[in-house]
Amino acid sequence: MIDTINLNGKWILENDRTGATEATVPGDITNDLYRAGKITDPYFGLNHRQIGWIPREDFIYKKVFDAPKDFLGGEVLLEFDGIDVFSEIYLNGELLGKTENMFLKYTFSVGNMLKPKGNQLEVRMKSTLNEMDKFDCAGYMSIFNVPRVFVRKAQCHFGWDWAPDICGYGIWGDVRLKKVAKKRLLNVQVIADDKGNATFLATLNYSIRATVDILGKAIDGSATKCNGDKLIFTVYDCGTDGAIIAEGETAVTGRKNFRNFKIKDCELWWPNGYGEHPLYGYKVRLCENGEEISSVCGKFGFRKVELLTEPIDAELMGYKIRINGKDIFVKGSNWVPIECFTGTVKTEK
Q1: Cα-Cα-Cα-Cα dihedral of 147, 25, 20, 49, to 10°?
Q2: Is the pTM of this model over 0.90?
Q3: End position of a domain, from candidates 300, 318, 337
Q4: What is the pLDDT along the chain (349 residues), one digit of tens a residue?
Q5: For the residues of 291-333, what is the DSSP string, one character each?
Q6: Per the domain annotation, does 327 fall within a domain?
Q7: Number of domains in the chain
Q8: 195 with 138, same domain?
Q9: Taking the alpha carbons of 290, 294, 299, 304 in that order, is the dihedral positive or negative?
Q10: Which residues does 258 contact at the CB level (< 8 Å), separation at least 6?
Q11: Is the residue at 24 inside a domain?
Q12: Is 289 domain-assigned?
């Protein structure tokens, strides 16, 4: 049974100045226009100085798709992993929401809006620079570009010492439809230390406890019915056999739930050059009436990380990273982004 529909690939990009252009998602508007022969290579010579009008224009991404029968009327999410940056999203003519942060994932419930054939999805991109013109920058200072500090966007998109002033713009992340359980796990966070303690924090998309108003009165219909809802936490050994080394269950008590484990003789995770990097596996299952309805799997390591800023003398503060009780010499390099257009970066590059 299909539970995910990939909406990446070919889209249509529309603009009054450029007309209709075949676009690629994930991608970037400037790159799409170049591939379509509507602008010159923005990376060649000083061509980038001729395309400053692009982030001053509004564009519309369009996609038409069909939906399987079992997606209609069910619990279906439309997910955008990244939109750069200001946009309005419409499905079959209805506004789903707006975006104003390149770094956030945007998710919408659309099961009751889908049709068997010809669903029309639109992402109406709003000019990045025109929106930035609305910011009050009085009293602020920044190199290369002042308004950039107020927008949640890759800051190197406004020119840098290593890059031309080319403003990334478009749908830079994956887009998908996902059929999900009505009651489900949203997220699992693991907090582990160097003594074998591991805390699993499981967040659900519902609560069996009613929301209360400002007077402390329970709001009717705000609680989800509990049918023996419980969470089962399983921890797997970091070896090749993946044997179960700890397991426990707890009744669902609210939207956020947790379970603690103590793993004896755990293998510690160390940074490169200081030891091995063993990772333990885990699975958290949400069950209703004894049946699994949602699960989240992942890996984690046992370690303790400390940032020490202790005084060295009367005029000097220390700055040390300590992992598992050992001071670590932190070293590395400054690697700038490999593309001006975030959405065009390929894993192999």
Answers
A1: 40
A2: no
A3: 300
A4: 689 999 999 999 999 999 999 999 999 999 999 999 999 999 999 999 999 999 999 999 999 999 999 999 989 999 999 999 999 999 999 999 999 999 999 999 999 999 999 999 999 999 999 999 999 999 999 998 999 999 999 999 998 888 889 999 999 999 999 999 999 999 999 999 999 999 999 999 999 877 777 877 767 776 788 889 999 999 999 888 889 999 999 999 999 999 999 999 999 999 999 999 999 999 999 999 999 999 999 999 999 999 999 999 999 999 999 999 999 998 888 888 889 999 999 889 8
A5: EEEEEEEEEE-B--EEEE--EEETTEE--EEEETTEEE-----
A6: no
A7: 2
A8: no
A9: negative
A10: 199, 200, 201, 202
A11: yes
A12: yes
- Same domain flag for 216 and 130: no
And the tokens for 260?
């603690």
- What is the identity of the amino acid at 217? K
- Tell me: do 43 and 144 sit in the same domain: yes
Amino acid at 123: V
Q: CA angle at residue 201 from 196 to 202, to 5 degrees?
A: 135
State the residue range of the domain holding 32: 4-179
Kindly state the tokens that stand for 59.
């564009």
- Which runs of consecutive H residues, i.e. helices, occur in 20-102? 29-35
Phi, psi dihedral angles at 254 (to 5 degrees): -175, -165
| Of residues 108, 109, 104, the one with CA closest to residue 74 | 109
Give which of 289, 321, 288 is closest to 305, Cα–Cα.
321
Q: Could you tell me if 55 and 46 are in contact, meaning their C-beta atoms sit under 8 angstroms apart?
A: no
Within-domain flag for 318: no
CA distance 105 to 103: 7
Q: Which residue's structure tokens are 């709003």?
A: 126
Backbone angles phi, psi at 57, to 5 degrees: -110, 155
Same domain, 139 and 47: yes
